[in-house]
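Researcher: We plan to redesign the surface later, but first we want a full-length starting point. Tokens attached.
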């Protein structure tokens, strides 16, 4: 196997493992701090990636996107939470939902800070050390982009993605039970549309959206172009 491709695979796996795990733990931790023990009781505040793996969203979907040369992203097994524990169910739902994307933004920012901190010595080190070159020119950009892709993907206002938590603030309280009931049906429809839309219409709006948002933000954050 080509060494560059092997490095690409390893960097991808490490980036996804950290991004998805911290994303879900952030959801559970936010809910826990708001009074909901559900995630803690089910062991979902763990930093062990295995506890958060979703067979399709964590493994199959990223591999499919990699093969099709689309922006690579995915999702983990959603952390359970119960809005009934929150003092204010609507605000609690929103805070819990937005915690995951904010965690990914923080991780992307951390990668950018490391890139800027090493920028002054990076050029000679990249030439002298293949391992450093992989870390600096492949892992850091990929880690940032994976986190930004995951953040912006989840910010789409489509149930049960995190962006849909805004509905908890906007909808009248009496409509919330119905909203929660339809969440389980909305996501499968969205995933089917995401896979088949480009083949039917010859245009991939999701790739365009992620390049426009995550790609451009990543380039603004780093001292060199990363997408």
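Model: Full-length starting sequence:
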């Amino acid at each position: 196997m080509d060494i560059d491709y092997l490095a690409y695979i390893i960097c991808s796996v490490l980036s996804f493992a950290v991004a998805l795990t911290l994303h879900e733990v952030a959801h559970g931790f936010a809910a826990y701090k708001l009074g909901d023990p559900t995630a803690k009781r089910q062991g979902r505040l763990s930093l062990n990636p295995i506890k958060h793996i979703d067979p399709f969203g964590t493994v199959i979907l990223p591999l499919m996107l990699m093969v099709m040369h689309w922006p690579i992203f995915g999702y983990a097994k959603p952390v359970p939470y119960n809005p009934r524990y929150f003092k204010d169910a609507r605000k609690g739902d929103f805070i819990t939902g937005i915690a995951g994307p904010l965690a990914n933004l923080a991780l992307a920012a951390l990668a950018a800070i490391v890139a800027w901190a090493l920028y002054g010595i990076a050029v000679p080190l990249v030439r002298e050390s293949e391992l450093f070159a992989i870390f600096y020119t492949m892992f850091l950009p990929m880690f940032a982009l994976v986190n930004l892709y995951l953040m912006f993907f989840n910010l789409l206002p489509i149930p049960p993605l995190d962006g849909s938590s805004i509905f908890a603030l906007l909808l009248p309280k009496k409509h919330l039970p119905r909203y929660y009931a339809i969440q389980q049906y909305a996501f499968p429809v969205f995933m089917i549309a995401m896979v088949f839309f480009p083949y039917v219409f010859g245009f991939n709006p999701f790739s365009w959206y992620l390049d426009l948002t995550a790609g451009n933000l990543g380039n603004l954050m780093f001292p060199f172009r990363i997408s």
